[in-house]
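Hmm, how's this folded?
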Amino acid sequence: QVQLVESGGGLVQAGGSLRLSCVASAPMFGSRLAWYRQGTGGQRDFIAGIAVGGATTYADFVKGRFTISREDDKRMVFLQMNNLKPEDSGVYYCKLSSAWGQEYWGQGTQVIVST
Protein backbone atom coordinates (compact mmCIF):
# COMPACT_ATOMS: atom_id res chain seq x y z
CA GLN A 1 0.00 0.00 0.00
CA VAL A 2 1.37 3.39 -0.99
CA GLN A 3 0.18 6.53 0.72
CA LEU A 4 0.30 9.89 -1.01
CA VAL A 5 0.11 13.24 0.76
CA GLU A 6 -0.47 16.45 -1.16
CA SER A 7 0.30 19.95 0.03
CA GLY A 8 0.68 23.48 -1.28
CA GLY A 9 -2.90 24.39 -2.00
CA GLY A 10 -4.46 27.61 -0.84
CA LEU A 11 -6.14 30.84 -1.83
CA VAL A 12 -4.53 32.88 -4.57
CA GLN A 13 -5.61 35.74 -6.79
CA ALA A 14 -6.11 35.28 -10.49
CA GLY A 15 -2.78 35.56 -12.27
CA GLY A 16 -0.90 34.22 -9.29
CA SER A 17 1.07 31.01 -8.83
CA LEU A 18 1.06 27.98 -6.57
CA ARG A 19 3.30 24.95 -6.34
CA LEU A 20 1.68 21.72 -5.28
CA SER A 21 3.71 18.89 -3.80
CA CYS A 22 2.95 15.22 -3.31
CA VAL A 23 5.11 12.84 -1.30
CA ALA A 24 4.82 9.07 -1.51
CA SER A 25 5.35 6.66 1.38
CA ALA A 26 7.25 4.23 -0.84
CA PRO A 27 9.73 4.49 -3.73
CA MET A 28 8.18 5.70 -6.96
CA PHE A 29 10.62 4.06 -9.35
CA GLY A 30 8.77 2.54 -12.27
CA SER A 31 5.57 4.43 -11.51
CA ARG A 32 3.68 6.97 -13.54
CA LEU A 33 2.51 10.03 -11.64
CA ALA A 34 -0.29 12.42 -12.39
CA TRP A 35 -2.33 15.31 -11.05
CA TYR A 36 -6.10 15.49 -11.30
CA ARG A 37 -8.58 18.17 -10.32
CA GLN A 38 -12.05 17.73 -8.91
CA GLY A 39 -14.33 20.66 -9.36
CA THR A 40 -17.79 21.40 -8.03
CA GLY A 41 -19.30 18.91 -10.47
CA GLY A 42 -17.57 16.04 -8.70
CA GLN A 43 -15.66 14.69 -11.69
CA ARG A 44 -11.90 14.32 -11.49
CA ASP A 45 -10.26 15.74 -14.58
CA PHE A 46 -6.76 14.90 -15.73
CA ILE A 47 -4.40 17.85 -15.42
CA ALA A 48 -0.88 16.54 -16.03
CA GLY A 49 1.10 13.33 -16.03
CA ILE A 50 4.76 12.34 -15.99
CA ALA A 51 6.17 9.01 -17.05
CA VAL A 52 9.11 7.09 -15.66
CA GLY A 53 11.51 8.60 -18.18
CA GLY A 54 10.22 12.12 -17.57
CA ALA A 55 7.91 12.47 -20.57
CA THR A 56 5.03 14.76 -19.69
CA THR A 57 1.46 15.21 -20.87
CA TYR A 58 -0.94 18.02 -20.11
CA ALA A 59 -4.59 18.82 -20.48
CA ASP A 60 -5.03 21.44 -23.19
CA PHE A 61 -6.45 23.98 -20.76
CA VAL A 62 -3.26 24.06 -18.66
CA LYS A 63 -0.61 23.82 -21.36
CA GLY A 64 1.87 26.65 -21.08
CA ARG A 65 0.77 27.46 -17.53
CA PHE A 66 1.35 24.30 -15.48
CA THR A 67 4.48 22.18 -15.19
CA ILE A 68 4.71 18.73 -13.66
CA SER A 69 7.99 17.36 -12.36
CA ARG A 70 9.22 14.50 -10.21
CA GLU A 71 12.11 13.78 -7.89
CA ASP A 72 12.23 10.05 -7.39
CA ASP A 73 15.01 10.16 -4.82
CA LYS A 74 12.75 12.29 -2.61
CA ARG A 75 9.61 10.32 -3.58
CA MET A 76 7.96 13.55 -4.65
CA VAL A 77 6.00 14.94 -7.57
CA PHE A 78 5.24 18.61 -8.10
CA LEU A 79 2.82 20.76 -10.03
CA GLN A 80 3.90 24.31 -10.68
CA MET A 81 0.84 26.38 -11.56
CA ASN A 82 1.29 29.82 -13.06
CA ASN A 83 -1.15 32.40 -14.35
CA LEU A 84 -3.94 30.81 -12.37
CA LYS A 85 -7.54 31.41 -13.37
CA PRO A 86 -10.73 31.12 -11.30
CA GLU A 87 -11.68 28.03 -13.30
CA ASP A 88 -8.53 26.33 -12.00
CA SER A 89 -10.15 26.17 -8.57
CA GLY A 90 -10.84 22.75 -7.13
CA VAL A 91 -9.33 19.94 -5.13
CA TYR A 92 -6.12 18.67 -6.65
CA TYR A 93 -5.22 15.02 -6.29
CA CYS A 94 -1.98 13.20 -6.83
CA LYS A 95 -2.19 9.74 -8.43
CA LEU A 96 0.45 7.04 -8.63
CA SER A 97 0.14 4.20 -11.12
CA SER A 98 2.60 1.45 -10.33
CA ALA A 99 4.41 -0.75 -12.81
CA TRP A 100 2.15 -3.60 -11.65
CA GLY A 101 -1.05 -1.74 -12.47
CA GLN A 102 -1.99 -0.61 -8.98
CA GLU A 103 -3.32 2.89 -8.51
CA TYR A 104 -3.11 5.09 -5.45
CA TRP A 105 -4.61 8.48 -4.69
CA GLY A 106 -3.83 11.14 -2.14
CA GLN A 107 -6.39 12.93 -0.03
CA GLY A 108 -6.26 16.11 -2.10
CA THR A 109 -5.33 19.72 -1.55
CA GLN A 110 -7.71 22.57 -2.25
CA VAL A 111 -6.92 25.43 -4.58
CA ILE A 112 -9.10 28.52 -4.69
CA VAL A 113 -8.42 31.18 -7.27
CA SER A 114 -10.20 34.46 -6.65
CA THR A 115 -11.01 37.11 -9.22
